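In these records, each integer encodes one residue's backbone shape. Here is one protein:

___
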Amino acid sequence: MSEDLPEHVAENRRYWDGMAADWVDRGEKAWAQQPQWGEWQIPNAELPLLPDDMTGLRAIELGCGTGYLSAWMRRLGASVYAIDNSEGQLSTARRLAEVHGLPDIEWVHGDAEHVPQPDQCFDFAISEYGAAIWCEPNAWLSEAHRLLRHGGELVFLGNHPLAMVCSPMDGSLPVTDRLERSYFDLGRLDWRDAVDEPGGIEFNLPISAWLRLFDRIGFDVIDYREIQAPVAATGQRGAVTAEWAKRFPSEQVWRLMKRRLP
């Protein structure tokens, strides 16, 4: 592990490399299905994060994990560049790309806050969790802005700030019906000493802070969605129970556009 990496990048690399094997089965299932989003597997027809046709688009996935989202974009016609902080996760992605006959996705081991690609070389950028929660917001959003052409879109899905506010300070699971921490103090969430599932450093912000950050960097908001668990959902997904997520938003989706030149 490089000593030059920021603390959160190094910790998240250790964390995800250490549990990469636990995500193989979920990755294999996702590679074989149509696009479905988040912990509650909302179909793309109901939550349209990807266009129906991506022919001719150059797309980047920021924090690709096992690579299923990149596979979905490739099947829709995009040329795809996929970067992830975990070599263990990328090993699964590369293997599944061969299994599914998609050898031309470009898999890159690296930090989504520093992507080794030139300015304005992508039409579309996306993160489902990945950079959306594991990277420092100003850093990765500024990098996504640099990489996108003017008018290019960035879509990202991650934890809703309310779910973070209802997460106990000791890191125990699941989230509660109480306000456990300050909404206005959201930012860096260090789970290394968590009671349950210790490890990793996440980030989240109050919604007003997200909006100010987008504006300062140069993104306009096209859409914002707060995800509700389906009526038929049961059990627990990650840190959230289905009953909680039917009453409160556990996940959020932002769709942004890089401002066009005047």
